Amino acid sequence: MFSSIFASENVFKVHGDETVVVFKNKRYYVWFLVDHATNLILSWHVSRYRDVSLRSY
To answer: 3-class SS at 16?
Structure first.
C-alpha cells in the first residue's frame, strides 16, 4: 500500500551523521541530516546531551 502511494522516483534518500565537538572543556553533540545524492546538509541539531534521559532538569 505504502509503495503504491509513493512512487520510488519521488523518494529521496538521506543519512544522519553525529559529531562530538569539545568547546571550553564541554562536549556538544551535533547531528546532521544529509541528502544522499547531493551531500547537502538539510538540517542540523546541537545539544549538550546525547541522550534525553541523561538531561537533568
So the answer is: strand
* Helix (H) or strand (E) run with residue 5 in it: helix 2-5
d(CA 46, CA 16): 13
Distance between CA 24 and CA 35 in Å, rounded? 31
What is the layout of strands, in order, in the sheet containing 14-23? 14-23, 26-35, 41-47
Distance of CA 51 to the CA centre of its chain: 14
Look at 31 and 51; give whichever has higher pLDDT: 31
Give the amino acid at 6: F
pLDDT attached to residue 12 = 74
Q: What is the pTM of this model?
A: 0.63
45 forms beta bridges with: 31
